Amino acid sequence: MSNPPNASKTALKGAIALAQDVKTHRQAKEQFEELYPVLEAENAEMAEMLRHLWQEYITLQRSAAFWQRLSNAEKDLSDKITEDNIQLQQNYLRLVQEQ
């Protein structure tokens, strides 16, 4: 298995960098699709393996982004519940003091 030339490595690194953000997945996919024929011409088996790895990477990035958004929403909800609880306790203490 030969190493891809520097241009291929650079293009692949760029695609990977773009794939780290779900918002730029389309650009990452386009960049990978442009690179794939070059890799395939150099080494078809390596290129096919890389395509499978690429698809898994994209899937994992999307999954991670989904779970991160879900975690953030859960944290925001928890923070809001905590704030509401503190406010209720303060209101209760004021009510008790007024009586």
Compose a concise summary of this entry:
This protein is an all-alpha fold. Helices cover 88% and strands 0% of the residues.
What's the end-to-end separation, in Å? 83 Å
Largest sheet: none
Structural class by helix and strand composition? mainly alpha
Count of alpha and pi helical runs? 3
Element order, helices and strands? HHH
Oligomeric state, counting identical vs distinct chains: single chain
Strand content: under 5%
Return Rg in Å. Answer: 25 Å
Share in helix: over 70%
Average of pLDDT:
92
| Rough outline | rod-shaped
Number of E-type strands: 0
Low-pLDDT residue spans: none
Give an overview of the whole structure.
The structure is a single chain. The chain has 99 residues and is mainly alpha-helical. It has three helices and no strands. Helix 1 packs antiparallel against helix 2 (25-42) and helix 2 (25-42) runs antiparallel to helix 3 (44-98). The longest helix has 55 residues, at 44-98. It starts with 5 loop residues before the first helix and ends with a helix. The model has no long low-confidence stretch (mean pLDDT 92).
Question: Which helices and strands occur, and which strands form pairs?
Answer:
Blueprint: H1 6-19, H2 25-42, H3 44-98
Helix pairs in contact: 1-2, 2-3
